[in-house]
What does this fold into?
Amino acid sequence: MSPQPAWWKEGVVYQIYPRSFQDSNGDGKGDIPGIISRLDEIAALGVRVIWLSPVYKSPQIDNGYDISDYYSIDPIFGTMEDMDRLISEAKKRNIGIVMDLVINHTSDEHQWFQKSRRREDPYTDYYIWQGLPASSAQSKKNLPNNWTSFFMEDCWEYDDLRGEYYLHLFHKKQPDLNYKNPLVYDEVKNILQFWLDKGIAGFRCDVINVIWKTSLADGKKSIMLTGLEHYKCQEGNHDILQKLRKDVLSNYDCFTVGEAVMINLDDAKLLSNADRQELDMVFYFDHLEVDRRFARFIPKQFSAAQLLHRLTKWQQGLDWNAIYFENHDQTRIVSHYGDDSGAGERDSHWERSAKLLAALQITLRGTPFVYQGQEIGMTNFDFSSFNQIKDIETHNLNRLMKKLCFPAWLRWKWLKLSSRDNTRTPFQWTAGEGAGFSTGQSWLGINANHTKLNYESQKNDADSVLSFYKKMINLRRSSEVLKYGEFKPLLATKKLLIYSRESVQTENSSYKEAASSEAYIIACNFSGKRIKLSGEARVLLQGTLAVSNIGRTQWNTSQTFLEAWEAVVLRV
Ligand code: ISL
It folds into this structure.
């Protein structure tokens, strides 16, 4: 069934992590005036929406995902006037602004929490408070239950003033809101209305599938997230999302994309399929964990066949997908699924694999989300020790692994690969001092490869990674089939995957008959070596060359191999 057209399905979304994008006042942290100064560059990429990671007032314990006031901008990022200017200046370039909605928890410095711990009505039950457990049997640590947090700690913090424990699924300075309290729901409604009335284009909803805790009973012991079964995708959670849609979101021309942790396909359908009237899209993690165990923390072998298998599940399983390869919690895709050797050099495995991953992402079915720096092929950080890392999750995981007697070399090897700081290093605008990001001391280390890998050296280079992203985004914009056509897996091996995008046909017309209408075949070689094409692959790869990432000018249908890290997009 072909998806209902919508503007947010047609455009590309560009995610900005304000702290690392562009600093305008030399304090070493990016800010809103810095983003405004780069709107023309963003518009030149052909994006239709900017997703802004949090800029609200915050103690910045978790870089803004700990909000102390939803109605004001944190001074490190600027003022509300700056925010209004960003929304209007972006609109002039036909770019909508999507805000990050972090409502599973607030900062413990939010006035709601300060009043709640003092039992000041009506805030007394705005959070999830528990007295000391009746019998210590409940939890050997004498905590209300045995739940473990996303940041590898216990989930309960005792508050002396209140004389009770409060729940925090993330850091102890991020207490969870109590959605069983209708006043909390009203507060959230007001936040949505405030920002939508400012003319924003929608919300990216942070961990939006864990906000309703059905019970606080002990969870089944598990290596990660003990207790998850009591708060993941609960009925109450779906009710809240349907109410927010009916009460607020449906009154505006906007869209929502929800980050949904630990979900399977059925969970995603309930959260985002059109007939559910909840979210418009969800971010799942499955497609980025092909070569990982335990979320993204422990590496294992990559397989192109496994990747195609997982992509196919979601591509064909959901009404509409949110297609992302990077964000501020993940690692750089060229270092993850590609090969970042020769970073910044022409026709290196870095350049080829960065372009291959662009061709793959932009030709999948769904709304593409491009993360800042991905469009120039930024790589994982080049840190050499833990003290260069700022991310609380990485430090907590290191502490836990140390307690479990993991040797230092192994802890560094695994955490270097998975740390969230890999995508948080400052944007590499130039080869110069501070990479054109800041004239001050940047809050996080700048990758030394910025001398060769930077926006400035790519912007006027027709064969750069940046130009390739622009080409792919343009191709998608001009193609109904790349936007709305169905996705079909055709062939996959350990290193090679081939799939097609074709206009939605009724079931009784075979593939060949459909040749009359526009269709594309995409083939990607995920290895640093030339691979021989099987007979079956050669039969499939019939068509005229639309895009090549290695400078081919035509596709010879008798082609018998793909070069190292080669991708071809053929029009059939
Ligand atoms: O990526 C993760 C799991 O693989 C976790 O790092 C992440 O904590 C989880 O996806 C939730 O992320 C969101 O909420 C967190 C915040 O730290 C993340 O930056 C945000 O994306 C708490 O608000």
User: Anything to note?
Assistant: DSSP finds 17 helices and 22 strands in the chain.
